[in-house]
Every structure is written in C-alpha cells, then in structure tokens.
Design brief:
The chain is α+β, with helices and mostly antiparallel strands and 219 residues long. The protein is 21% helix and 19% strand.
C-alpha cells in the first residue's frame, strides 16, 4: 500500500519529511468543529483549522483516502489528495501516517501563483480555482511539502471538501470516514489546548509556511 521509510526524531521535529510526518503520541479526543469561533466570538475568517493524526490508531485501512476520492468525485487521472505513508520509528516499529495539504498559515503556493488561482479563505483553508489555474507548476516547486498534484485540467489538492459541499469549519469526509479516531480536524488553538490538557506539547510538523498539521512529543 505505502512505501516504508525510516523515521528519525530530527525529521519529525525539523519537518524535513515533506509528506506524512504528523505524529501524535497518546489518546486524542475529537474536537468539535466551530468550537473556537463559538466561544471566542471570532469569525471563521479569523480561525485557522488543521489536522491531527494519531499514528498509534491508524491501521492503514485507507478509508480516508477512499472517502476523499469518492465524495470529491476525483477523476481517474487525478492523484490521491490524501495519502498514507509508512514509517519505521526509533523502536523499529512500522507506523502509518495519513496526510494531505497542510493548509499553511503562510502558503508558499499562493505567494508564487502568477494567475491568482490559489487563495486562503475561511477556516484557513487553501483552495484552488481550476478555471484560473494555468498549470505552470510554480506552486509545486514552491511547496515545501510536495502537495500540489496535477490532472489534465489543472492543479489539484485537498480543499477540506469545499467543492464536495462541506462548509468551512465542518469535518471533511476523510475525518468522517476514519473509524479508529486516528484523524481529527478542528481549530488549531483547540488542538494545542487538547494536547496541553493531556500533559503533552503539540508542535507543527515543520517550520516552512506555518503548516496546520500538528505532532505531539516523542517517537
């Protein structure tokens, strides 16, 4: 199903692995969508949402991958928006990590797009206007996480299921499909607070672009 890579602590904390390095240690409780904005009075335009992945619960069933393809009606020539990668941790154990677009706080893809096809909107979601995309691949070259893919029409990537009718801040279909609690979605502030309540420290998967994918602690 997925390739196997030796995972080091330096790769995790330094964000050197472009894809699949969101590692969570310990149990995770689901974060209700919209909680942050409801409690603080902030609008969705002011709240950054992100993903939380629990490698201890992921079993590589690929239900998240399948749900993404199905509900977003991805064409046969469109690569998977979400992928599962296999890593070997410091104890020699294989662990599975599901990732997609990082929906960066400062997306390099948006900055370099000459056509203005990439925008950052409500809930911090980075999306692509396929009618405007010219297929120059500048976004792929700029993305530190290797996210942008291409089909015969335009660049394609995760938009948290906006095109599939999911409103900003609501759970994308990949999260709904996970039956093991390995994939969570919510306001970043809530995810940080959740980690703190568990006595853990959540840190972003990397530094470049301020990615909205968090990891907790030791590997």
């Amino acid at each position: 199903m997925s390739s196997e890579t030796t995972l080091t602590r330096r790769q995790l904390l330094g964000g050197a692995t472009a894809v699949g390095a969101c590692i969570i240690v310990g149990g995770v409780t689901a974060v209700a969508a919209g909680t942050a904005s409801a409690e603080t009075g902030e609008s969705l335009a002011e709240v950054q949402y992100g993903f939380l992945v629990n490698m201890n619960k992921c079993v590589d069933c690929e239900k998240c991958v399948a749900a993404c393809r199905e509900f977003n009606h991805l064409s046969e020539d469109t690569p998977n928006r979400r992928t599962i990668n296999t890593f070997v941790n410091s104890r020699g154990e294989s662990v599975y990590v599901s990732t997609s677009c990082m929906h960066c706080g400062e997306p390099a893809c948006e900055r370099v797009c000459p056509a203005g096809a990439i925008t950052k909107g409500d809930a911090g979601i980075v999306s692509t206007n396929k009618d405007v995309c010219i297929g120059c691949k500048y976004c792929f070259e700029a993305c530190p996480y290797g996210v942008p893919n291409y089909n015969s029409v335009a660049m394609d990537k995760c938009d948290c299921c906006l095109d599939a009718g999911v409103a900003p801040g609501e759970e994308p279909y990949c999260v709904r499909a996970c039956k093991f609690g390995a994939l969570e979605y919510g306001p970043l502030d809530d995810l940080y607070a959740l980690a703190e309540k568990q006595g853990k420290t959540a840190v972003p998967v990397g530094e470049a672009g301020a990615p909205s994918c968090l990891l907790i602690g030791e590997v």
